[in-house]
Design brief:
By secondary structure, this protein is mainly α. It has 5 helices and no strands. Helix 1 runs antiparallel to helix 2, helix 3 crosses helix 5 and helix 4 packs across helix 5. It is elongated.
Length: about 140
């Protein structure tokens, strides 16, 4: 795995989390009126469709929780690697690009914060990726 892929895993996990949240919300909003889809029994008059939707939403919540834990683990890995980046500008660019929400991940936003040109920020990013690649090669020689 290259440095960019290593760093992008956090945002990819975030996109999967958002997808599961949206799907759960869709299931819950399409449930028959007056029915709660919390996975708990509320009487014997539930229809098969409502019970099926509740079960599906409960399963998706379990998967969502797993992705939340995975994103936390990935974030911790990335933070540890970024902690080994020696140059403060490289660290800032990587943090804003890969760990912060938009618009902080846009080149122009990063350039504004660092008071540099977009092109210079992109150069710093390239140097930072090389440094991260060296770090992950030494810390995760066979895994990543």
């Amino acid at each position: 795995m290259n440095a960019r892929e290593f760093l992008e895993r956090y945002k990819i996990a975030g996109k999967k989390i958002e997808m599961y949240r949206q799907r759960i919300e869709d299931i819950e909003t399409t449930a028959p009126a007056g029915q709660k889809l919390d996975g708990q029994p509320h009487g014997t008059k539930k229809s098969d469709a409502t019970a099926s939707a509740a079960a599906k939403a409960a399963d998706m919540r379990i998967t969502l929780e797993a992705w939340l834990m995975e994103q936390e683990r990935i974030q911790q890995e990335i933070v540890e690697v970024l902690g080994a980046v020696k140059d403060v500008n490289r660290f800032q660019v990587l943090k804003m690009r890969y760990l912060e929400d938009a618009p902080a991940d846009s080149w122009q936003s990063i350039a504004n914060v660092l008071d540099k040109t977009v092109r210079h920020v992109q150069r710093i990013h390239g140097w930072a990726l090389l440094e991260v690649q060296n770090i992950i090669n030494s810390e995760y020689p066979t895994e990543v």
